[in-house]
Amino acid sequence: MSRELVILFPDFFSFASEGKRSGSNFSRSCESVFTSFFSYSGQYEGYEKELLDVFGLKAERSSVQSSLINILATNDLEDNDENVILRADPVYLKADQNRVFLFDGQALAIDNGEAEEILGELNDLYSDELFYFTVGKKPWRWYLRGSGYNPPEGDSPLTLRGSPLEVAENERQNMGELKTLLTEVQMILHASSINEVRTGRNVLPINSLWFWGYERSPKNYSYKTRKSTLITNCDLAQNIATDARMNWIDLEVFNESKFEDVKADGLIIIDPTEFESLRSFLEKILINLFAQIRTGTLRRVRLITRLGHFRVTPLSRLKFWKRRVAFLEATNRQSELGDQLF
Asked: Which residues of 117-135 are buried (b: 16+ CB within 10 A; e: fewer)?
């Protein structure tokens, strides 16, 4: 199989559009290369599905949430021997006149101190029960352990971020005792001192939990794609790489001097939840990569964005008759799309 550099950056076009508005050199240099060498090659299928795909886990894409919840639990929990993995993730549910929208814990920027205090409070109040709450390696990944409840199978809070929840909420009306527990927890959260502090800081409170989960999978996933280098700031990608015993480099500590070390069969994943804080550094990385595309050093590249997959191949320089991707048209379309896949 031909070597190909894969860049998973869902918000590439909005990133480029913002750079153009601010007069960045990045947008001008990338626009020329993109228009000249990239061709549309496929549809975007949502961030978590695309993650599994770039790691060669296509067989698991029909059960994306089950695959991811098992991988994360393996890395989060020391004793992962329960038959069901039940997540109880902190969220903010916002209701308007007709719909309910969800904001996940990562969007709420929950820190470790807040997570530990709230879960400690919940565990104290439910100390007579067999179940208990615990936090994973990130403060927005919470678990309900030892409950025996059957969780609703469904999408993760990350997938549902900012989305209306009509269907998901209707499916959750039949959660039985878990629904009763959720109602109680919502009342506890409403009175929580942590939420009083958050409200005083003008940040969204944690007003509910999102229960979801799947049966524990005993199987070892077969990772068919082995990339020479993974560079990412995405926690999900780092967990998958760890499960696959693949070395990875944290994008946030990646040294500028190593740009040239990006291999032609490497993998770069930009977390769609945390890229604005790295804008200057990301621009330097992309300018470097696009310069290598222009000179022919990188001959095969796949860029995955919310607007689709775009590819550079050795024939890209020869297809003069093929209409190129209109960069301005794409950036405008990105800003106009409202209900797009996360």
From this structure: ebbebbeeebeeeeeebbb
